[in-house]
Amino acid sequence: MDFASSERTRPHPAEITSAKIVVAGGFGVGKTTLVGAVSEIEPLTTEAVMTVAGAGIDDASKVPGKESTTVAMDFGRITMADDLILYLFGTPGQTRFWFMWDELIRGAVGAAVLVDTRRLTDAFAPLDYFENRHLPYLVAVNCFDGAPRYELEEVREALAIPARVPLLMCDARHRESVKAVLIGVVEHAMATLVAEHEQATPVG
Amino acid sequence: MTQPHDPRGNLVRPYAVTRGRTEPIRDIPIEAVLIASPEAVQEARFAGHDKYRIAVLCEPKALSLAELAALTRLPLGVTRVLVADMVADGLLQLHSAAPRTGFTERMDLLGRVLGGLRKL
Questions:
Q1: Are A128 and A139 in contact (CB under 8 A)?
Q2: Which of A8, A9, A17, A83 to probe the B interface (max B CBs under 10 A)?
Q3: Where does residue A57 fall: left (phi above 0), alpha (psi -120 to 50 degrees), or beta otherwise?
Q4: 3-state DSSP call for residue B13?
Q5: Number of A–B residue contacts, CB under 8 Å
Q6: What is the pLDDT of residues A33-48, one digit of tens each?
Q7: Which residue among B35, B110, B119 sits closest to A189, beta carbon to beta carbon?
């Protein structure tokens, strides 16, 4: 994709690259808390208006009784260098807004699906979504106070998470824990990319 | 123009600032950042209120399409139409989102992001 090469009318500062990681999960699972734990700005909210006339939105009928719906997503920012910014985007909680998710994951480095053990079934829709997309993702179990504690393998089995998908515990309120989740996403993305590359270019 | 009983209701109203256009003239990823030069901010004074606000926001600091939508409180789709026009008119410089192709390019970026996270 050629996004930036045609505007050469004035001198550029250094080219700034921006990357994003998507944080998915059911409503109230702690996505915004997670984003806020590492973001350099208070998480911002942007709204997309889903219009009946909107292009590419093929199924307004899934939102009964409404002509328009505002979908909000929260996001944060980490400026890593003068020329590198990482954005963290939380998916809209309602999984029926798949069209927003598709836009969000386009070009993403990877995703973390956040799971609340008190509402395990809320995780099925987002997990199902990522199983059917070409984007590396991991599953992070948010350890809420008072939530039932399970062994990771119990969670993996209950949610039928494939063995190749990393699974870890986290506390979305704590910066170090969230860092570990994000590092896990990037490491998994690198491993996936290397594996695909080796498959595509057989040695010998 | 919109009648109170317009069957499209308030769906159309957000797009009044784009004169009804809902499709940007180019795609802009939500995470791609934009910068306005001081000269561009001066020029944007004549481009309308919302475009001027956007230019002012992008002058001191590179901001993503998502940040511009949040800070102007305009819907994302509306902001994208305005920003795409401004890029075409030379009022904003569009910087690149992460490369989606090329093994080396993608690995380089992932490596830099990983390093950045570890340093947090």
A1: no
A2: A17
A3: beta
A4: helix
A5: 162
A6: 999 999 999 999 988 7
A7: B110
